[in-house]
């Protein structure tokens, strides 16, 4: 039996996968180090070393089978606090599927893989918008996986689905490798104007150069810190995807260092745990 980690810190964004399941369409030789199974036993030691007590698993495949897979892991893994799953937002039976998964206490939100879809305006399709409103009514969280070019469309969807509790994953993947800030800077600020929208400080190292340094990430962290503030930022590791560019400890240290320049101890407790617990409505 594993020893509990005596901390309230939460990693709001990590993944597990078993390749034999066969539905990870985005994987290939371009991410060759990720082409193996990543399961709870691979992460537990890393969490302990980083002082992280609980995690949120986020979907990595666009199937309900992936959602079921994660919920099975959550039921068997003490450090997993919740699951952000996948549902077909254009399905005729979306309302029924949402109700079905909502009955599972580990199901805390859902995420379509907007960044991988051919239609940048997918989130504005009439049926998707109708179902987005259903998510808002349900009180479940909605994870926004996008590139910067999607952000104006997301802003319009948020206007049409008032009350949606949403969170931007990975700062919406700005072009950290080139140092470009615009138009991402204004578009992120527009999303931050919605009071129910938060932002995950995650996924930065894989958008940076291979020889990234803290100063490369700092302008992006500083901007979301100014836009969202201490109450709407959540730490996420994006493990194991982040291992393409950094270890778990390096990712956690980068976030703690960069955010620690702006926020004091109480605010850091929010960003590294309290905010995730509140946003995903986790039990204490």
TrEMBL record:
Organism field: Aureimonas jatrophae
InterPro entries in the cross-refs = Amidohydro-rel (IPR006680), Metal_Hydrolase (IPR032466), Metallo-dep_Lactonases (IPR052350)
Q: What is this protein called?
A: L-fuconolactonase
- Using the record's annotation, list all stretches that form the Amidohydrolase-related domain: 10-282
Into which family does the record put it?
A: Belongs to the metallo-dependent hydrolases superfamily.
The GO terms describing molecular function are: hydrolase activity
């Amino acid at each position: 039996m594993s020893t509990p980690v005596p901390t309230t810190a939460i990693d709001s964004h990590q993944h597990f996968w078993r390749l034999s399941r066969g539905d990870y369409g985005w994987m290939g030789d371009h991410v060759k180090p990720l082409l193996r199974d990543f399961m709870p036993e691979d992460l537990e030691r890393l969490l302990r070393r980083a002082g992280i007590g609980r995690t949120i698993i986020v979907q990595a495949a666009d199937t309900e089978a992936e959602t079921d897979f994660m919920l099975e892991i959550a039921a068997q893994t003490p450090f997993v606090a919740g699951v952000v799953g996948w549902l077909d937002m254009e399905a005729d039976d979306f309302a029924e599927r949402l109700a079905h998964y909502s009955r599972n206490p580990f199901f805390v939100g859902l995420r379509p893989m907007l960044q991988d879809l051919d239609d940048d305006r997918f989130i504005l399709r009439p049926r998707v918008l109708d179902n987005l409103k259903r998510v808002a009514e349900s009180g479940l969280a909605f994870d926004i996986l996008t590139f910067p070019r999607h952000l104006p469309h997301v802003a319009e969807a948020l206007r049409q689905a008032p009350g949606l509790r949403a969170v931007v994953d990975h700062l919406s993947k700005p072009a950290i490798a080139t140092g470009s800030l615009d138009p991402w800077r204004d578009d992120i600020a527009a999303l931050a104007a919605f009071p129910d929208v938060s932002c995950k400080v995650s996924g930065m190292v894989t958008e940076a150069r291979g020889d990234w340094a803290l100063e490369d990430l700092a302008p992006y962290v500083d901007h979301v810190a100014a836009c969202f503030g201490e109450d709407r930022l959540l730490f996420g590791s994006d493990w194991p995807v982040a291992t393409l560019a950094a270890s778990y400890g390096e990712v956690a240290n980068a976030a703690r260092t960069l955010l620690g320049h702006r926020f004091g101890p109480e605010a850091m407790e929010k960003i590294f745990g309290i905010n995730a617990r509140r946003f995903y409505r986790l039990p204490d």
